[in-house]
Amino acid sequence: MIYSKYFLLPTFLMVLGVKFSEIFSSVRNMMRIVVLPALSDNYMYLLIDNTTKQAAIVDPVDVTKITKAVESEGVKLCSALVTHHHYDHAGGTRELFDTYKGQISIYGFDERINKLTNKVADGDKLTVGNLKIECIHTPCHTSGHICYYTVDDNNQKAVFTGDTLFIGGCGRFFEGTAQQMYDALCVKLAKLPDETEVYCGHEYTTSNLLFARSVEKNNKKIEEKLKWSKMKDNSKEFTVPSTIGDEKIFNPFMRVS
Predict the structure, then answer these.
(1) Fewer Cβ within 10 Å of end Cβ, the chain: N or C?
(2) Annotated active-site residue in 49, 84, 85, 152
(3) How far apart are CA 112 and CA 135, in angstroms?
(4) Which of 62, 85, 86, 110 is catalytic?
């Protein structure tokens, strides 16, 4: 999806000496999502309820970048939503907890997450301000992987998929089986509305689509998406978000039967 209101933004930011890849805010009515790149190819997300100005950080690893974003957005950080325990997604939880002097909730399934304050399970319901969040247990990449499905009062929808679902691909099977990944992608996540926007944990889109093209050589949608992804790479722009509906068209791991 391309946002016309941001068409001239990369050039404008270059004039200011700011890299477009440093920060991108996706406005979703009552819900706002600020994309924060981290490490070499990770994504963190600042999830904001525009009404209450309460916020959660998804997969905190770079606390300095998080605190700067919280300050610049003028929001109150209330919680962290951790998809899984790997360092590149949860490596900042201890520092984040200490930085906010314990006045922050750390949500996740896996007790290997440092400073975990609230253990969640499949189907649990959370809130960030007026945003409603459902926890979806998707074991395979890790046994305790959680995706966070979020809906605002205007029925705008997003899902934070960590290392379960990528744009055009899926995560490695470190602690699970192919059947578990199938269930995660083709049963649980596939049931979400097609318009649900997908915010994944890494920028792997181009390499994923190159593989997808090798699997489905006659799928023109894959070729179109790959061309688009390469253009995004060249302009140093993000490829997130995707949508559940789009993934069903060009992601081979959501097209198996």
Answers:
(1) C
(2) 84
(3) 18
(4) 86
Which structural domains are found in the chain, ordered by start?
4-250 (3.60.15.10)
Q: For residue 202, give Cα distances in angstroms to 8, 11, 55, 78, 207.
A: 25, 25, 21, 24, 11
**Quick check: helix, strand or coil at residue 42?**
strand
Instruction: Give 106-146 pLDDT, tens digit per residue.
Output: 999 999 999 999 999 999 999 999 999 999 999 999 999 99
Query: Is 246 marked active-site?
Result: no
86 flagged as catalytic = yes
62 is catalytic: no
Quick: pLDDT tens for 3-41: 333 333 333 333 334 443 345 566 657 999 999 999 999
194 as an active site residue: the answer is no
Answer whether 47's CB lies under 8 Å from 57's CB: yes
